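pinging the channel bc i need a second pair of eyes. not urgent but kinda urgent?? the chain im working w is below, pasted from the shared doc
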Amino acid sequence: QVQLVESGGGLVQAGGSLRLSCTASGRIFSRNRMGWYRQAPGRQRELVATITSGGTTNYADSVKGRFTISRDNANTTVYLQMNTLKPEDTAVYYCNVFVFFSANDYWGQGTQVTVSS
């Protein structure tokens, strides 16, 4: 059983910063991809950023240059540093782990990020 525990969401003014964290427990194996997705009201869930266990990153165009994804050396915690936040970044942010070996997808419970103008 894989569990993902997220933290770090909250309310911030436009131009501010937040850092999200997500720690995985259970059998996620050594080769995986961890990442963040978000869903705003009335919209589909969308990719924000991902990082593989080998360190390859991928970002949505809307966050490039403002957000940075990273992971710890144990490859069990993923971070999302969000700078220069905009009101359109307001959404529920979900942590995700994709395990290459089993092709299983795991999701966190989500954390609310609200950016006021």
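so The mean pLDDT is 95. and The two ends are 40 Å apart (CA to CA). — does that match what u expected or am i reading it wrong
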